[in-house]
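Please check this today:
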Amino acid sequence: MNRGSEVRQALMTSAIRVVAAQGIQNATTKAVATEAGFSEVYIYRFFESKDDLFSRTFDALDKELMILMLNSFKKAMSDETKASAKAKFKAIFHDFWVFTLGDKNKCYFFIQYYYSYFYSNHSEEARKAIYQPLLDLITPVFSTDADPWVELNHMY
């Protein structure tokens, strides 16, 4: 990883911690930079704005979650054991909850962002693109009149 990527990642990790501790409305770029051990100038060197920092951080967490869920679904769908569908879905949900609740700061950031104006302004449309590989995998199991995107959002 190059220095720029390391700084960008440090700022995103700091954003997660600051939002978790202070709430998304109270989180400032100064607090994020200070927590990361950088000058506030670094945020604007790597991100266009506070909104950009938060949306990229959310997108990165969402991609991490999507990859985990994609792998979990693939594992359950390829499982040739006699495990019931209920047991397979329990395993999928277990993976989701371990990810979601495994890091309190990530969980708080995710929830705070998802229910903020940042999400509707910056990430709502991008989220569907992030989850497209998972949608492609699960769409065939739904009836033709179902909306897999809605179903996926209801599951999680």
About this structure: The chain is about 80% helix and 0% strand. Residues 33 and 40 are 5 Å apart (CA to CA).
